[in-house]
């Protein structure tokens, strides 16, 4: 999952990028409004954490522009405490959730998980497909109840495919949502990860759709 953080306070920006990175997200940070708007407008994100008080362009304006231009990504705004009018303006501009500063990082992570989950149409923290179960809170994966040990990269890939199960996901989409720009990716990397995942899962859930990408679905020919 790729998350955009738009926050100009250096300490908070650092805490956010660290906590989100530790939680398995790929994080892009913008420290002013102009850059934040540009990234959200041109890159593909699974969610954004948007501060309202920003240099150059304020958060409400950014959000209004994104929504006007059809950007539907879930957005969690960061507001100043006791400024109820900011929350109202934020929701009116198209925010999906808010947190008042200061906040506990755990709460931010929980709210973000909920936003990403709802955007994908899921009601709780468990993803499942046939014998596969993923607990997204603890990043735990089981097949038929047996725990499967995955690397962080493999987990991200599997969670993304499971979040979008039944849909064909292209290699480009996977690359954009799962890896940092500086991650060394050649055209075979995704294929290698998929191959390893298939072996570790031991069940036929990830299908290759020739020329298009991958699709995670429940096997209908369980021999
Ligand atoms: Ca600020």
Features:
single chain; 223 residues; alpha/beta; Rossmann fold; Arc Repressor Mutant, subunit A; 4-stranded antiparallel sheet; 8 helices
Describe, in short, the structure shown.
Helices cover 41% and strands 23% of the residues. It is an alpha/beta fold.
- The best one-word shape is elongated
Major β-sheet, in short? 5 strands, parallel
- Strand sequence of the main sheet, in spatial order? 2-1-3-4-5
Average pLDDT rating? 91
Radius of gyration: 18 Å
Strand content: 15-25%
Named at the architecture level, the CATH assignment of the largest domain is 3-Layer(aba) Sandwich
Q: Order of helices and strands, N to C? A: EHEHEHEHEHEEEEHEHHEE
Number of domains: 2
Q: Which stretches are low in confidence, meaning pLDDT under 50 for 5 or more residues running?
A: none
Tally of DSSP β-strands: 12
The CATH homologous superfamily name of the largest domain equals Response regulator
Give me the secondary-structure category.
alpha/beta
**CATH fold naming of the largest domain:** Rossmann fold
CATH class of the largest domain: Alpha Beta
């Amino acid at each position: 999952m790729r998350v955009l953080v738009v926050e100009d306070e250096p300490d908070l920006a650092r805490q956010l990028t660290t906590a989100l990175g530790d939680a398995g997200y790929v994080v892009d940070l913008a420290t002013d409004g102009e850059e934040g708007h540009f990234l959200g407008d041109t890159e593909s994100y699974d969610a954004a954490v948007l501060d309202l008080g920003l240099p150059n362009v304020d958060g409400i304006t950014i959000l209004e522009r994104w929504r006007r231009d059809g950007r539907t990504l879930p957005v969690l705004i960061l507001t100043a405490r006791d400024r109820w009018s900011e929350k109202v303006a934020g929701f009116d501009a198209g925010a999906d959730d808010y947190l008042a500063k200061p906040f506990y990082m755990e709460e931010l992570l929980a709210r973000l998980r909920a936003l990403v989950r709802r955007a994908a149409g899921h009601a709780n923290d468990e993803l499942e497909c046939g014998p596969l179960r993923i607990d997204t809170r603890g990043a735990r994966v089981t097949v038929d109840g047996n725990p499967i040990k995955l690397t962080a990269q493999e987990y991200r890939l599997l969670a993304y495919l499971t979040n979008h199960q039944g849909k064909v996901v292209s290699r480009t989409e996977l690359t954009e949502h799962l890896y940092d720009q500086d991650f060394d990716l050649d055209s075979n990397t995704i294929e290698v990860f998929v191959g390893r995942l298939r072996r570790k899962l031991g069940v036929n859930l990830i299908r290759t759709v020739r020329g298009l990408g991958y699709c995670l679905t429940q096997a209908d020919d369980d021999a």
